[in-house]
Structures are given as C-alpha cells and as structure tokens.
Amino acid sequence: MAYQEERLAELLCARLCHDLAGAIGAVSAGAELLAEEGPASPMAAEAVSLLADSAASMTARLKFLRLALGVSSASAPAEARPLAHAYLEKGYPQGEWRLDWPADQGSAASPDHAKLLLNLICLAQDCLPRGGVIAVRPQDTVLVAARGETLTAGESVQGLTATELAGLGPRAGQGAYSAFLAARLGGTIAWRQGEGEIVFFTRQQARLIQIKAGPP
C-alpha cells in the first residue's frame, strides 16, 4: 500500500510537470528572444507578448491543478467553475477545448466533489486529443460530457481501474486519483466505450457521474 501511494504521488508530480512544461518553455523562449534582440528591437513587442501569454497560460494551469490535485478547501466548490474556464481558455489559448458550464447549472456540492469534477474534466480532455467541448452539469445525473470528432481511451482511463501502478505513464495517475476521490465520496468509478462515446460512471449521492465523448 505504501508503495502504491508513493507511486501515485510520483505519477501526479509527473503529470503536473508535464502540463506546465510547455508554458514554461514558451516563457524561456520569449526571454531568450528579448535578450538576443534587445528592448529596442522591433521583435521586442512580440517577445513581451509571448512572455505575457505564456505566463497567463502557466498561471491558469497551475491554479487549476492546485485545486484538482491539492488539499481540499472550503472555497473549492465556488472556485472550481472559474478555474476550469480559465484552465481551458487561458491555459490552452489555441482553443482546442471549450468548457460548457453555465452559472445557472450550479456548483459542486463539497470540496471533494469539486476536486472530482476537475479531475473528470482532465480525463475528458485526455479523451479528446483533437479538442472538443466539455460540458459540466453538477446538479444533473450526467455531470460531465466531452464531445468531439476524435476520441480515445488512453493512459488516464487505464489508471481508473489499475490495481498496480508500476509501468503506467504520468496521465494514468489522474485516473487513479479520480478513482481515489470517488472512493472517498463513497462511490467507485468505472468506464465503458460505446458507439461514439466513452462513459465514466460512479455512484455518489445516488447520482451517475458520466463523461461522454462523441460528436459535438
């Protein structure tokens, strides 16, 4: 058990580093460009813009992942929705993924529920390698639906049901942690793939939590 917990921590740390590496690399590239060209160069404005955009992307990703993977707080249910919007809009400004979580659909019921929602958003994102729409409905039976033309059940999905974490990649940690959160809420998570969709489900407060991946 101790080894499994240590391995899960390693996988989550690897996932965090992986998600931040791109934005940090862009900040480094902008700084190098500014240093090479100088502040008076016509390229300076481009370098500063790259630095600002990359810093905003890194900040959005880090704030989201801090709540998704960190210690629960009483403010988590209220913070989850704006952090999720910023994560997909600013964290990935190319617009591959769009969040559909209207304010009138409500928020998470508890801090752990908020964390589970954010981790399910990450699973849905991983299932949509070419982008798509991720809809969140915390008060409905179907809580999360990911829709796109291309879908795949990758490492994250493997982590959901893995009993042995050795040999699994960093994204598998997100699935394993989602299963842990569901268990802490008194439920379990499983998944199945049908025509045009991947469904993840758990029993928590007598609700079925699902992620569907299919046409937008």
How are the elements arranged and paired?
Blueprint: H1 2-37, H2 44-69, H3 76-89, E1 97-100, H4 111-127, E2 132-136, E3 144-147, H5 155-161, H6 170-184, E4 189-194, E5 197-204, E6 207-208, E7 213-214
Parallel strand pairs: 1-2, 3-7
Antiparallel strand pairs: 2-3, 4-5, 5-6
Q: Which class do the helix and strand fractions yield?
A: alpha/beta
**Tally of contiguous helical segments:** 6
Ends: how far apart? Answer: 41 Å
| Molecular shape | globular
In helices, the fraction of residues equals: 40-55%
Low-pLDDT stretches are none
Major β-sheet profile: 4 strands, mixed
Oligomer: single chain
How many extended strands?
7
Radius of gyration (Å): 18 Å
Order of helices and strands: HHHEHEEHHEEEE
Mean pLDDT: 81
In terms of DSSP E residues, the strand content is 5-15%
Strand order of the largest sheet: 1-2-3-7
What does this protein look like?
The protein has helices at residues 2-37, 44-69, 76-89, 111-127, 155-161, 170-184, and strands spanning 97-100, 132-136, 144-147, 189-194, 197-204, 207-208, 213-214. The protein is an alpha/beta fold and 216 residues long. Strands 1-2-3-7 form a four-stranded mixed β-sheet. The model has no long low-confidence stretch (mean pLDDT 81).
Key features of this structure:
globular; 7 strands; 6 helices; four-stranded mixed beta sheet; alpha/beta; 216 residues
